[in-house]
Amino acid sequence: MRSQAVTTSVEVSAGGLIVSKSDPTKVALICHRNRGGGKDWCLPKGHVESNETLEETAAREVFEETGLAGDVITKLGEINYSFRVGNTRIRKTVHHYLLKEVSGNLTADGDPTGEVLEVRWFSLDELVDVLAHENEKKMALKALELLR
């Protein structure tokens, strides 16, 4: 039995950390189901749509997944990783930004994919303990440095 050839796909996403306008020590995170069936807290993010800049994608995805509209303050950095789905290796780059809340209400109801289980405010000091992924913890630490 021959195995099928592995193909490679490239994906680009953007998202970030949005800081509360009423309490600049709080940021919004989303919770979703991980592949093992548990729950992970992570940064809101999603795929770039046609004719969108990375900053526009970050603001749109943050709004869709948290209910909060924000202005981009600065880029925090990029995360690169790869994973496999069947016979496809996906090489992904996620561009993360720091945003300041300008309006909205904290809710996951606007998530078009229905993947967001919960959205909640966390203090900056909690992020390293709460975030599920090491690479996102690094983005949170960069945000912490910028905000202090």
Provide the descriptors you would attach to this structure in a database record.
148 residues, alpha+beta, 7-stranded mixed β-sheet, 7 strands, globular
How would you portray this structure in words?
There is one protein chain. The protein has 148 residues and is an alpha+beta fold. The chain has helices at 54-66, 127-130, 134-147; strands at 7-19, 26-33, 39-42, 45-47, 68-85, 88-104, 116-123. Strand 1 and strand 2 form a beta hairpin.
Helix content: 10-25%
General shape: globular
What is the structural class? alpha+beta
Can you write the helix and strand succession as a string? EEEEHEEEHH
Overall mean pLDDT stands at 93
Low-confidence stretches: none
Summarize the structure.
The protein is of the alpha+beta class and 148 residues long. The chain has helices at 54-66, 127-130, 134-147; strands at 7-19, 26-33, 39-42, 45-47, 68-85, 88-104, 116-123.
Would you spell out the secondary-structure blueprint of this structure?
Blueprint: E1 7-19, E2 26-33, E3 39-42, E4 45-47, H1 54-66, E5 68-85, E6 88-104, E7 116-123, H2 127-130, H3 134-147
Parallel strand pairs: 1-6
Antiparallel strand pairs: 1-2, 1-4, 2-3, 2-7, 5-6
